[in-house]
Amino acid sequence: MYPLIRRYLRRVDVVYLLLCAACSAISIAVLLSIGQTQLGSNNKASVQLIASLLGLMLAAVFSTADYHALARAWPLHGVVAWGLVLPTLFLHNVNTGLVTIGYDAGGTSNYSWYRVGGMTFQPAELAKISFILTLALHLSQVRGQVNRPKNLLLLFVHIALPAAAIHVQGDDGTALVFLGIGLVMLYAGGLSHWLVAGGLTAGVVGGAALLTLRPGILKGYQFKRILAVLTPDDPALADITYQQNKGAMAIGTGGLTGQGLLSGEHIFVPNAWNDFIFAYLANVLGFLGAAAVLLLLFALCLRTLRTGLQCPDALGCNICVGIFAALFLQCVINIGMNLQVLPVIGVPPQRVGERASLLAEAFPLYSAALGSAINSPGIRQSDDSPTMMNTVRDSQLMLPPSSHPTALNPQMP
Description:
The chain is mainly alpha-helical. Helix content is about 65%, strand content about 5%. It is built from 16 helices and four strands. A four-stranded antiparallel sheet has the order 1-2-3-4. α3 packs parallel to α15 (about 355-375) and α7 packs parallel to α9. The longest helix is centred in the last third of the chain and has 34 residues, at about 275-310. The chain starts with a helix and ends in a 16-residue tail after the last helix.
C-alpha cells in the first residue's frame, strides 16, 4: 500500500494537488464563517467538505488514467453528461418525487438544475469536462490543418452546439464560459490571427447590431444588469444594483486584515456563500486575504499551463489549455462581478464558490491535468511536442517545422 502511495506521489504534481486542496480549504473555512454569522447552520460548509473529499478521491483515481483513454471514451462520458443536460431543455420544474428536473434555482428562468432532496446539482458542470476532452481530441486530430474551411466549420459546430444547448437551458453565464473555453482552445490549437481578428470584429459589430435591431433578445433583468454596471447609482435600478453595491462595499471596508473570519461585524452581502463569496472573503480577511486567494488561483492557472508544456503530444496540451480557460474565465467573470466592472451572470469562482457540482467538475478536470503530468515527465523537444514558446512563429520566420519545437498555436501548413 505505502509503496504504491510513494510511487504515486513521486509521479504526480504534488504542488498542483496542494494548490487545489488549499483553495478548497479556504472555501470551507469561509463557508463555515458564513454559516456561523449569517445562516445559523454549517450545512453548506459540510456539503463543501464532503464534495472536496469526494473530489480528491476522484482526482486520485482519474489522474492515474491515461488522458488518451479519457478523451477517446467520449461516447461514454458524452452520453452521461449530455444525457443529464438534455432533459432540462424541455422539462421545467418537473417533480418526479425525489428528483426535480429543470429546477429553477434562482427564479430567473434558469432551468439548468436538478434538485435531489434538499440539494441542487447542475449537470452542465459535468458536461464541461466532456466538452474539454472531446474538443481537445478533435483539435489533436486536425492538428496543423485547423484553418482549412471544412475543419474550421466542424470545430465551430463542436463549440457552438454545447453553448447553444446551455443557452436554451437559460444559463447564459455558463454558456458564455463554454464559448470562451472553446475559442481559447481553438486559438491555442492553431487558429489564424487573421481569423481571430476578423471574428472578434464581426462578433462586436454583429452583437451591437443585433441588440440594436432586436433589443428584446435579452431578458429584462439581463439588460438591467448591464445598465447597472454603467449606472450603478441609478435609483431606477436599485433592486438590481443592491447586491453588487453591497459586494463592492464589503470589499472596500475590509481594510488590510479584514473584520475577522468568525466575527459578526461584517458587511452583509446577499448570497455571500455563492456568487459573491469573494466579496465576503475580502471583507472578513481583508486585502491580504483576498490577495492570497487571487495568488492561489493565479498559481493554479500557471501550474495548469506548465503541465501543458510538459505534455508530449497535442492532446494533453489541448486538455490543459481547456482546463486553464475554464478556471481563468470563471475567476475573471466572478471577480469582475464582485468588483462591479462586469454584470452579474451567475458564475461563481472556480474552486472557491459554494457548489457541490462545481467541485464535482473541478477535481476530475484537474485530475486530467495531473494525469497529463504523470504521463509527461518532462518537456520533450521533438517535432510532435507542443510548447508555449511561440514568441516567434516558424511560419513567420519562414523556417522549416523542424527548426523549432511546435508552438502551442502552430501555424504550419
